[in-house]
């Protein structure tokens, strides 16, 4: 029997699934998961994936995770793309780094860069690196022992998988069950990918056991011997193979008379079997194997030989060949030099565990010194320092902090934190300890808020007043994420009170952070609001602290429904240098929110620029904030497709950074456009994913989530439930002192619910208050909506006037969806009053606008009203440039200027699939068949 057939015994089902998956890659990518216990042949099935892919002419690259390298930032990613680059010529290698992919180069190569990319920027770059690699042919990424994959690489896979459903990329992974994963949350996110094919190789049957042993032992295997071996090894292919090799090594045949000896040998662990093989080799082979176990897989032969104390490289190579012949290591060549890896993780574990604790410590320390002296990257040195007792190496802190800096530069905060945490164990001096505490705390906030807050609190307590000011904004936000907002406010207030009276700019910076966080996240703090009059009266200035404060004051004013801060916020956000420097999670976000609520078009331009910056150098938390604010702004403008896309991206970012607040707001952003598009079941599921249902509600800032749920229930016709939830939203808004209907429109929802319950007198009281507040705020979207709602619940004699006023207010505003709603209600009121001819024009406009926004229910209502007015039915699908949504128009313009789909996707930070969908819609609406016709079609407007 051929070796390949032998290794795939009783794997016909798995082989067929592999074949089908490989054949389907060109139609779209996904995940192939091989899952099972150690030794069941998972690696062999991955190897079969590689073989089939190579035969099909696909690109293939592979990596293996190890439990010893879980803290090595992007270790698996580097294996994947180093192998890919190694086989490519210079031109092809450079083409991998074109476009956004260059942002990921720091994660793969040890090179200097002009700036440090954030963790999201690296993920985005790695995604485009993958897309670049599959342009000429489909690509298969193989990852063995996924459970030990380092966190940054896991995050890459989690980011990649949802984005390759239309790309020719297959991710094939092997996952060992029963092992503790590096990050269980990320792992579960990965293996829950929609496009998943799962293989579960089982133990071999007694018949297959006999066949396997016949090949391993090169002779006949008698029945009782095979059955006994099968029972002893539990049908595990690896253990059966090791058992057969051990019998052969001892000169024992596979006869029934030797079945009694199976119990003795079969009970041996892999460690004993490996030890027996090493003992049979020359004495200098075992030290080399132990050196590889300490250094890790892919160890250069020269380095392993030095650690093993072997001066002769030729003799070391002879030992390596002997180890390979006995099935212990594998010899590969990298850039023409031999490297050593173990044939299986169980074999490496066996060799490593044969070292006692003292030998392991000594070997790792010697390895650290060896690597340090040879100028190896700091992370390689730190890998070994992490495995020796603290204070053993006098210069460990220097190496560990350098490793942390390198990991941070690669966008791997988890790995950076591990090195910093260990640095603290090295008992650094007070000043250095405080610096490390601060650095570790800020780093931990990116993935573990509990740990980050604890470290920052310790750093804050040990520092002076001015130094505390650097910590307070981070610590305050950490406590907000931990649902301890009052603690965050108290920290910030205490820091401010301790500042020197002369440090005016720093005081303003902290006051801005305090005010911004308390506005949206901290309920019931009257003491914060009390300072507003004083802050509003501050003289105009251009310092950084002044600008932050202008944004924060504008945000608080916006919550209260006071438009007085909007103009100054607009002036502040017009400064690109300031926007580039400010944190999108703090006062800057208040500025965006104020402009968006005021229907100021500048908010979109500023947010679009912020998205670009976040993709180039931002963190996951930074990008989440930008997507949340842009998503709501697009929603309020009526760009439902754009709002939906930003909502989905926010949720994905929340899944990657583990932030419950991010996921809550992301699901709310997504639910709103889904409701307007008539996708009610999907909207309900989206809100339920974060615990927002008719009977449950999570803690935190849920005022926006509750208004979305109330709207959903009203559209479904559940008016009592809609009213009840609207009143819950009122309570949430009262706690957070949010009075502006432009932000949370619970009054609109309550008034409409009461109206549909025939409680119009109560509805009018709420609607009148809503209209008063909308007039005070003055923005067209809010005022137009308030006028329209008042019209709906007013006596018929007043309706047409109120609807007409709403249409007039909204006509020239960016609130296209709200304008369409007002036009429908105006046209319907005219028709019902007998003015059928006058009704048709606003209804046609409403139909066009609703179709452009993608508001299907509203479009259907406009169409029905038009028919009722006696107008001829026409298709609702618009044509011409005016029919394009803002997102479609952006794509069409870029395509008309000659950009390819990939270039457009990178420019707009979307997937190629999104570009394809938008272009398809553009072709249909513009009545063209190719991009070369786009300039003329767009110019026709």
UniProtKB/TrEMBL annotation:
Parts of the chain that traverse the membrane: none
Keyword Lyase: no
Domain of life: Bacteria
Record InterPro entries: AAA_16, P-loop_NTPase, Sig_transdc_resp-reg_C-effctor, TPR-like_helical_dom_sf, Tscrpt_reg_LuxR_C, WH-like_DNA-bd_sf
Keyword ATP-binding: yes
Keywords from the named record: ATP-binding, Nucleotide-binding
Pfam families linked: AAA_16, GerE
Domain spans labelled HTH luxR-type: 877-941
Coiled coil: none
UniProt protein name: AAA family ATPase
Annotated source species: Streptomyces spinosisporus
Lineage of origin: Bacteria, Bacillati, Actinomycetota, Actinomycetes, Kitasatosporales
């Amino acid at each position: 029997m051929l070796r390949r057939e032998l290794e795939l015994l009783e794997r016909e089902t798995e082989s067929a699934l592999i074949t089908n998956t490989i054949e389907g890659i060109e139609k779209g990518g996904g995940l192939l998961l091989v899952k099972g216990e150690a030794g069941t042949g998972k690696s062999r099935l991955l190897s079969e994936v590689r073989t089939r892919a190579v035969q099909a002419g696909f690109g293939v690259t592979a990596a293996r995770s190890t439990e010893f390298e879980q803290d090595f930032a992007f270790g698996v990613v580097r294996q994947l793309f180093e192998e890919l680059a190694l086989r490519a010529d210079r031109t092809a290698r450079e083409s991998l780094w074109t476009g956004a992919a260059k942002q990921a180069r720091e994660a793969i190569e040890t090179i200097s860069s002009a700036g440090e990319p954030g963790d999201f920027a690296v993920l985005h770059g790695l995604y485009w690196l993958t897309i670049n690699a599959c342009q000429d042919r489909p690509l298969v990424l193989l990852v063995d022992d996924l459970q030990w994959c380092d966190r940054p690489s896991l995050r890459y896979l989690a980011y990649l998988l949802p984005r390759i459903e239309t790309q020719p990329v297959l991710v094939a992974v092997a996952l060992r069950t029963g092992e503790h994963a590096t990050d269980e949350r990320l792992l579960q996110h990965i293996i829950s990918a929609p496009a998943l094919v799962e293989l579960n190789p089982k133990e071999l049957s007694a018949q297959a056991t006999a066949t396997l042993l016949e090949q391993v032992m090169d002779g006949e295997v008698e029945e009782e011997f095979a059955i006994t071996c099968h029972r002893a090894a539990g049908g595990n292919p690896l253990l059966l193979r090791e058992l057969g090799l051990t019998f052969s090594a001892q000169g024992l045949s596979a006869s029934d008379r030797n079945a009694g000896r199976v119990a003795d040998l079969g009970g041996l662990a892999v460690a004993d079997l490996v030890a027996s093989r090493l003992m049979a080799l020359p004495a200098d082979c075992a030290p080399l194997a132990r050196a590889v176990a300490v250094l890790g897989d892919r160890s250069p032969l020269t380095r392993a030989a030095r650690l093993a104390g072997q001066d002769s490289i030729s003799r070391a190579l002879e030992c390596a060949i002997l180890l390979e012949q006995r099935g212990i290591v594998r010899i590969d060549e990298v850039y023409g030099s031999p490297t050593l890896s173990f044939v299986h993780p169980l074999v490496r574990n066996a060799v490593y565990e044969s070292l006692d604790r003292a030998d392991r410590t000594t070997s790792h320390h010697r390895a650290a010194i060896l690597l340090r002296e040879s100028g190896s990257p700091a992370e390689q040195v730190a890998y070994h320092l992490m495995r020796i007792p603290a204070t053993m190496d006098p210069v460990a802190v220097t190496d560990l902090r350098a490793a942390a800096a390198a990991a941070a530069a690669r966008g791997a905060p988890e790995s950076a934190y591990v090195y910093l945490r260990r640095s603290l164990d090295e008992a650094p001096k007070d000043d250095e300890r405080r610096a490390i505490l601060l650095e570790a705390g800020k780093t931990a906030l990116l993935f573990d808020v509990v740990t980050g807050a604890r470290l920052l609190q310790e750093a804050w307590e040990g520092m002076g007043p001015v130094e505390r000011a650097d910590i307070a904004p981070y610590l305050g936000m950490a406590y907000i994420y931990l649902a301890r907002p009052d603690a965050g406010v108290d920290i910030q207030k205490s820091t401010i009170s301790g500042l020197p009276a002369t440090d005016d700019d720093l005081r303003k910076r902290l006051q801005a952070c305090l005010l911004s966080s308390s506005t949206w996240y901290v309920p019931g703090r009257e003491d914060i609001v009390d300072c507003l009059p004083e802050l509003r009266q501050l003289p105009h200035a251009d310092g950084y602290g002044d600008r932050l404060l202008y944004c924060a004051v504008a945000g608080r004013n916006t919550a209260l429904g006071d438009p007085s801060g909007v103009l100054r916020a607009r002036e502040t956000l017009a400064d690109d240098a300031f926007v580039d420097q400010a944190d999108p999670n703090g006062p800057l976000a208040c500025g965006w929110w104020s402009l968006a609520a005021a229907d100021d078009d500048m908010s979109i331009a500023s947010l679009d620029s912020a998205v670009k910056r976040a993709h180039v150098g931002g963190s996951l938390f930074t990008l989440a904030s930008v997507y949340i604010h842009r998503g709501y702004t697009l929603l309020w403008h009526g760009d439902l497709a754009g709002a939906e896309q930003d909502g989905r991206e926010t949720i994905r970012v929340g899944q990657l950074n583990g932030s419950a607040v991010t996921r809550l707001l992301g699901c709310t952003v997504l639910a709103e456009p889904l409701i307007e598009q008539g996708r009610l079941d999907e909207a309900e599921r989206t809100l339920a994913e974060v615990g927002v249902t008719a009977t449950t509600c999570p803690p935190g800032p849920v005022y926006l989530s509750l208004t979305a749920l109330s709207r959903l229930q009203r559209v479904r016709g559940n008016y009592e439930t809609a009213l009840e939830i609207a009143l819950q939203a009122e309570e949430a808004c009262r706690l957070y002192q949010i009075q502006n209907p432009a932000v949370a429109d619970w009054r609109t929802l309550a008034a409409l619910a009461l109206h549909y319950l025939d409680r119009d007198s109560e509805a009018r009281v709420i609607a009148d208050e809503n209209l008063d507040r909308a007039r005070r705020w003055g923005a067209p979207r809010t005022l137009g909506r308030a006028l329209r709602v008042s019209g709906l619940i007013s006596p018929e004699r007043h309706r047409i006037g109120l609807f007409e006023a709403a249409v007039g207010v909204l006509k020239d505003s960016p609130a296209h969806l709200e304008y369409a709603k007002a036009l429908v209600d105006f046209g319907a009121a005219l028709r019902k009053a007998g003015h059928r001819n006058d009704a048709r024009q606003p209804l046609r406009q409403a139909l066009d606008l609703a179709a452009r926004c993608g508001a299907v229910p509203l479009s259907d209502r406009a169409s029905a009203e038009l028919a009722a007015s006696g107008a001829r039915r026409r298709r609702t699908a618009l044509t011409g440039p005016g029919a394009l949504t803002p997102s479609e128009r952006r794509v069409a313009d870029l395509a008309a200027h000659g950009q390819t789909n990939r270039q457009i996707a990178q420019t707009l930070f979307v997937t190629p699939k999104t570009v394809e969908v938008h272009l398809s819609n553009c072709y249909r609406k513009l009545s063209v068949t190719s991009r070369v016709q786009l300039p003329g079609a767009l110019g026709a407007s």
